[in-house]
Specification:
Blueprint (H helix, E strand, L loop, with lengths): L11 H16 L7 H11 L6 H13 L7 H18 L9 E2 L2 E2 L1 H4 L2 H21 L9 H13 L4 H10 L7 H21 L10 H28 L2 H4 L5 H4 L5 H5 L1 H20 L6 H11 L4
Antiparallel strand pairs: 1-2
């Protein structure tokens, strides 16, 4: 048997393969009845996604000493929620995007009604997986805590509320505090859930360590979204997988539109340093999360 790679970078590809295989088992073959809906689910999920949120689940598990098989359900669930959110965000009534990860968005590849149903089905499947996984029975409270964490990330204090603010701020100039609140909900809440769900499987985890992990996740989630703003201006459509300049075209409120590129990059660096400081205060091996955080805030796509 080959030795386990010493760095998380050497294991990341294997973990991506692991979660994609698990997603395939949960989704089943795309020809299941109703056939067209199942095909749409596969189109939404198997589309070249980076699987960063499942990787956060597994990386946090490594920090906490949790085996990957106990984390497959949360890893799948958080990715399905992410995929559902993208399908709905792309709809004409929301961001009205034509391109996602280099392909036509789901409502264009199929139709708008099926895109709505596909998003609904993906969200439901995420919670079905968490509710039925035999790996979430210990400790007894773990399943409920994990479900509550993910549900909170989806709701009015999470993605739904953040998307509502995003729509409300189009054509406006909110202050930076309001903008970052929106970012923490729309993007950061799911990243926070990916980090905190494994904590429910570790009841012995000290409160200070859990607090540092939560703060780490908040910093990375905010930096990740500001980096998205930067890529909307600096990135190329072929690389980022969606139209370059789309936020500007819709007159969206972004870090760049409010304070400019240099300030946005400084804020990313500041948040990345805060995230590293959080990990340094945890008396565990945090290499996995440190590597993944760097990848997320420095990404080019």
């Amino acid at each position: 048997m080959a030795d386990k790679p010493t760095s998380f970078s050497g294991r990341a590809d294997h973990l991506v393969t692991r979660v994609e295989q698990a997603l395939g088992r949960h989704l089943g073959e795309p020809g299941h009845h109703p056939t067209r809906l199942h095909q749409a689910l596969h189109y939404a999920v198997f589309n070249g996604g980076k699987r960063l949120r499942p990787l956060l689940v597994y990386a946090t598990g490594e920090v906490l000493g949790i085996a990957p098989d106990r984390l497959d359900a949360p890893a799948c669930a958080v990715e399905l929620i992410h995929c559902y959110s993208l399908v709905h965000d792309d709809l004409p009534a929301m961001d009205d995007d034509d391109l996602r990860r280099g392909r036509p968005t789901l409502h264009l590849a199929y139709d708008e009604a099926l895109a709505i149903l596909a998003g609904d089905a993906l969200q439901a499947l995420a919670f079905e997986i968490l509710g039925t996984s035999p790996m979430l029975t210990q400790p007894p409270a773990a399943r409920g805590e994990i479900i509550a964490e993910l549900a909170n990330a989806c709701g009015v204090d999470g993605m739904a509320g953040g998307q509502a603010l995003d729509l409300a701020y189009e054509g406006c100039r909110p202050d930076i505090e309001a903008l970052e609140t929106m970012y923490r909900q729309k993007t950061g809440a799911l990243i926070r859930a990916a980090v905190l769900m494994p904590c429910a499987l570790t009841p012995e985890l000290e409160d200070p360590a859990c607090h540092e992990l939560a703060t780490f996740a908040d910093c990375i989630g905010l930096a990740f979204q500001i980096r998205d703003d930067v890529l909307d201006v600096e990135g190329e459509t072929a690389t980022i997988g969606k139209p370059q300049g789309a936020d500007q075209a819709r007159n969206k409120a972004t870090w760049l539109s409010l304070v400019g590129l240099d300030a946005a990059n400084r804020r990313i660096d500041e948040l990345a340093e805060q995230a590293r400081a959080c990990l340094a205060r945890i008396d565990r091996d945090t290499e996995a999360l440190a590597w993944l955080a760097t990848r997320m805030v420095n990404r080019e796509f």
